[in-house]
């Protein structure tokens, strides 16, 4: 396998004169899990549909598995498995019959298909309901069958549009663990979600979207780019004089007090934290703990989306 | 296009139909109703057409006057022998009329041989080798014999018209109307249940998907039509052969009708339904429009009788079949052209 799994270049989609997706570009390497994050109506589903050849881009191009979405749609569709926003299963058919239908369409050999269906249904903990009609299934069970359907032909690239949106915490965990398992086996996945925890746990890279792609990178890189690094110091008895003491240090770019803790901004905490500690002790402070401050994806997301909306 | 893929789509639809009791019930009703209906038409007509004529009574004619090659008008004839004449506005009593034409005549106790009667009243007469039926001719206690063309022949030709044209029309109507029921499940159902989005993300081509849907509707409809045909033929022959002494159906007209024209009409019906499905957003609207497509097909078959072609013939069906194949080619082309994945997702509900 060479090249990139997904390569989007300036993808744009209008509905009438409303812009749903504007100038979105990103790459997903083989074996990567990429999460598209964004509020409702951000254009995540529209982007995914363009990549799955279900919608034509108004402008821009994309390659999926090395094939162009507009000129080689069938080749593109052969590469992918899609979990759409809506499960769209055949209600009057059994779970197994639904999966068998899709397996046959993708040309999975009959000898392999049965084993494949059993394996996925067992992993998703829904094997004993395989013979029941979908009409009798709960929302979460349907979602699991729809995920199984997207995987029945072992696609090279998996598109999941909000895989855990309708699931209870336990079922969500089953699905997330399943995605992690696929990831561990080298699966390439594009994931739409507004669940930040999910994106952080599952993905190598995230794209934060609000019609445009506001930011793109690994959660860690994004944090680095948005905030300077900082160390969070907890003192037994906070005092203004300690702030003055450390502000005098050359490597310290700023100090803030937050809930009795000191937030010290600096470029290279790995190197300078020992000297920070030393300075504090010398000034008479009793240091309870010192740790580098992590920005959660939530911080990143909220800052970016709010910043974007303020524009 | 890979036929196997189309067949996979069709098989999935069959599984869905099988699971749907409403479809099964609706479809099973068709052959049953058709058989009952055809028997109700054919059996009474056959028994009327097969009635043996009663023996001619002896009229005890005592002929006293003789007319030959004359035109009689406003006269009363008693005990007369009339040859090669016309009688207009008269009364004929206990006479023998031969090779003549009677108009506006009341005849009583007479023997009429080889006459043509228009608007007459016959009481206690014998009508032999004659023609009647132009205008109303009332017959009371009158025996019809010989090669008279009248009621028995009328029943026979009515039986023929019913079993060879009228019942066959119903098969054509079934062929165009039945796809409506199934197609609305098969196509619009796939839209409304949102099952098309994942299906469209598979490597199926437009042609494979459309063709699969055509098969999915065609196979059950044609199977039912053939079942209806078999049951109807068996019932009609079983019940009418003892009366008529021969098998009423099938004949060339039926065979061409059921095995050539009906399948073509069925596919035309399917293609029209598919076209409607691509234009509307919900099952109810689709079914309402679909009801309308029966009309143009009906119209075609009204043209036959109206233009004097009378009952359906093999030639007439051949012309219609060729015309419908042309329509079909256009519809298939239109369906393929109009099949727009984008529309399905963005405007179909
Ligand atoms: N078929 C359509 N016709 C018109 N507008 C559409 C259509 N599909 C999407 N849109 C619009 O495009 C925008 C993006 O929609 P999209 O479904 O891609 O968002 P999303 O990020 O997936 O949202 P959500 O988190 O709610 O699923 C929305 O404003 C939506 O109203
Ligand atoms: Mg969405």
Low-confidence stretches of chain A: none
Number of strands of chain A: 14
What is the second-level CATH architecture of the largest domain in chain A?
3-Layer(aba) Sandwich
H/I helix tally of chain B:
9
What does this molecule look like?
The complex is a heterodimer of chains A (311) and B (349). Chain A has 311 residues and is an alpha/beta fold. Helix content of chain A is 39%, strand content 28%. Chain A is built from 11 helices and 14 strands. Chain A has helices spanning 44-51, 73-79, 95-105, 110-123, 139-151, 169-184, 196-202, 219-226, 240-247, 269-282, 297-310; strands at 6-15, 18-28, 33-37, 59-64, 67-68, 80-83, 157-161, 188-193, 205-210, 212-217, 230-235, 252-258, 261-266, 287-292. In chain A, strands 6-7-8-3-9-10 form a 6-stranded mixed sheet, sandwiched between helices. In chain A, strands 2-1-4-5 form a 4-stranded antiparallel sheet, with helices on one face. A 4-stranded antiparallel sheet of chain A has the order 12-13-11-14, with helices on one face. In chain A, strand 1 and strand 2 (18-28) form a beta hairpin. Chain B has 2 domains: 3-49 and 152-348, no CATH class; 65-145, E3 ubiquitin-protein ligase SopA (Pectate Lyase C-like, 3 Solenoid), CATH 2.160.20.80. Chain B has helices spanning 3-19, 21-49, 151-192, 196-200, 206-244, 252-279, 283-306, 314-338, 341-346; strands at 65-68, 71-73, 76-78, 80-83, 86-93, 96-98, 101-108, 111-113, 116-118, 121-123, 126-128, 131-134, 138-140, 143-145. In chain B, helix 1 (3-19) crosses helix 5. Chain B starts with a helix and ends with a helix. The model of chain B has no long low-confidence stretch (mean pLDDT 83). The chains are: A alpha/beta (311), B alpha/beta (349). Chains A and B meet through helix 2, helix 3 and helix 5 of A and helix 1, helix 4 and helix 9 of B. Bound molecules: adenosine-5'-triphosphate and magnesium ion. Magnesium ion (MG) binds at residues 44-45, 85, 161, 192 of chain A. Residues 44-45, 85, 161, 192 of chain A line the site of magnesium ion.
